Amino acid sequence: MTQKIFAGILAAMLLAGTSLAALTVSFDTASIDFGSVAPGEWKEAPLARDHDTLVVVSDTGNVWTAKISLTQALTNGTFPSITIPNENFRWMSTYAGNKNAPYTSLVSGLNHPAGLGYVNFSAIDELVYTSGKEAAYIDNNNSPAGTEIQFKWGMAMPSNQRAGTYATTVRYTVTQ
After folding, report:
1. Ramachandran region, residue 81 (left: φ > 0; alpha: ψ -120 to 50; beta: rest)
2. For residues 127 and 119, what is the distance between their CA atoms, to the nearest angstrom?
3. pLDDT tens digits for 78-99?
4. How many helices (H) and strands (E) does the chain have?
């Protein structure tokens, strides 16, 4: 039997500074759909491109951070007491870069660069990115187009997992 896996996306923002300052967050995908996954299978979520992208735009000049977490474990839609452990659902930050010319790579701001592989999800915020770490372009003030952070998603289905449709919400928290 196979399981159908979905994870919704929720962007959360915490703002600090004057009311004239702007901090905006956008994400280019409404949901992550793994499709059918067999027990014991490792699967990366199929994407329309090779990544999903979080974009943060700030005009304050202050350091900002982006974090990621789950609101709950992947939960069976029919039997809510049945979940897939968080350590089986994983994320990878594959790239960070300036969306303004000259489109500088900002991977030095990634807390877990792609070379370190996938990171297990947690209900506790995990630092993904900190602005201002690239000497060639300080992205604390990155308007108008912002900084993009690209992601990939993976799933290690437990071999004894009950079939069903599972869902959770991925939460992004951006603070400044």
Report:
1. alpha
2. 11
3. 999 999 999 999 999 999 999 9
4. 0, 14
